[in-house]
Amino acid sequence: PAAAHAAPLIFVVDDEPVSADIVAELLQLEGYRTRVFHDSRVAAEALSNSLVKPDILLADFKMPGLNGLQLLARGKSEVCGLKTILLSGMASDLIPGEPGFQPDVCMAKPFPMATLLKSVRRALVSPV
């Protein structure tokens, strides 16, 4: 994860640019650092190749390429201690589909921004 003295880094992944940008802007207003991705494959490459690893990977479920659950599972396997948050517009998507993998937090869209912020704070303090 990111350096201890820096604000937590959150990768926001959503193929809908407006959704991703709104979430990232809200997180930045709360003091978090963000990187936005509109393509799950690009986000997966960044997880592997970026020198600065995220503290939280927040992803929408329905995306072309890797779906959110696949991306989160991959992130967990590549980044030690990574926290994961899955967002979805359909509750049925929030039933885990990757064997042996469960996101730290699942949230149904739409959600109040305060709920998102509370989920981020909860994920950051939860044990690995």
Amino-to-carboxy terminus distance? 12 Å
Largest sheet: 5 strands, parallel
Total DSSP helices: 4
Q: Tell me what portion of residues adopts beta-strand conformation.
A: 15-25%
Class by helix and strand content?
Answer: alpha/beta
Record the strand order, biggest sheet: 2-1-3-4-5
Low-pLDDT residue spans: none
Bulk shape:
globular
Report the average pLDDT across residues: 88
Radius of gyration: 13 Å
Q: What letter string, H or E per element, gives the SSE order?
A: EHEHEHEEH
Total strands: 5
Looking at how many chains there are and whether they match, the oligomeric state comes to single chain
Structure, described:
The structure is a single chain. This protein has 128 residues and is α/β, with parallel strands linked by helices. 37% of the residues lie in helices and 20% in strands. The chain has four helices and five strands; from the N terminus they run βαβαβαββα. The chain has a five-stranded parallel sheet, with helices on both faces. α2 packs parallel to α3. It has helices spanning 17-29, 40-49, 68-78, 113-125; strands spanning 9-13, 33-37, 56-60, 83-88, 105-108.
